Every structure is written in structure tokens, then in C-alpha cells.
Amino acid sequence: MRIVFLLALALPVAATAACPLPPERSARHIELMAAIAAAPDEMTARQHTNELWGIWAKAPDGTAQQILDRGMTRRASYDFVGALADFDKLIAYCPDYAEGYNQRAFVNFTREDYEAALLDLNRALALTPDHIGAIVGRALALIELGQHRAGQIALRKALLLNPWLPERNRITALPDREENDTQTDL
Question: Is the N or the C terminus of the chain less surrounded, counting Cβ atoms within 10 Å?
Fold first, then answer.
């Protein structure tokens, strides 16, 4: 009887366990960032970037990984409602994991909810400042919101990290002044 009682007390603790903190930036992450910036061609940069995405998409634990993978699968099959629900769960469980915010931003950007995407991209970048995908997403969201100067500045920052980004063709002259720009810092 006493064992059943103790087991009943232990189960809620296990069910509400907190997500571990994401690991510190690995040496491989740092190597890949340097290799991407110095890549001699687009194919080489893409290969390094794909490996980097593997690092970003490695969740802090198995529970978070299952939620992330399910959300990404739902997003890929255009189940945006399901994907958003999964990314909301992931962020609630792992609030310090940048990829949860980045993936939710991707869904919101696809749904043309650029303001929601921008909020999540800013949070992802606060957690992982060199997340190239989030920087590009932020640049594109700012441009879609009419904040062209801020968007172009963000896009240029992304291109410093990866000069072979497909979005490099979106570079335009920086406007001297944009009435709609309310946020020009990165």
C-alpha cells in the first residue's frame, strides 16, 4: 500500500519534468559557421548548412524531439493548425530552445502572419544570435511588414554569415529613410 502511495506521488513529478537547457554551442557548430562563411561555392555552403540545421534541430531531450519532429512533419504536410499546436507545446516545455520559436515563426510566415513570425524570430535570435535561418526569416518578415530598411539590414547580416543564401537575390539598395521603419536595429 505504501509503495502504491509513493508511486502515485512520483508520477506527477515525472510527467511535469522540465525540459533540460539546450547544450552549449558545440565546437562543430563554430566550425560550420566559419566553413559556411568561407565556402567557395553554393553547393559547399549548402552541405555545411544542412549539417548546421541538424544541430539546430536536435532538441534538448527525447520528449522535445518528438514534439519538434511531429510539428515539422505536420508543417511539411500543410497541417498548419497541428504544427502550431505542436510548436506551442514545444515552446511551453522548452522555452530556452530557439528552434521551437523558429519553427513556429516559419509556420506563421507561411500563413502570412508576419507580425507573429517576427515576434518568434526575435526570440529565436535572442537565444541563438547566429541562427542564419532565423535571421533570414526576420529579414523577410520585416520586408513583408513594409520595414524595408530594417529588412535589408538583416538580410545583409545573414549574407555575412552565408554569402550563398538563395535570398541573396533579394538585396536592394538601402532606402535612406522609411516612414514605416520602426525598428532598424538588429
Answer: N
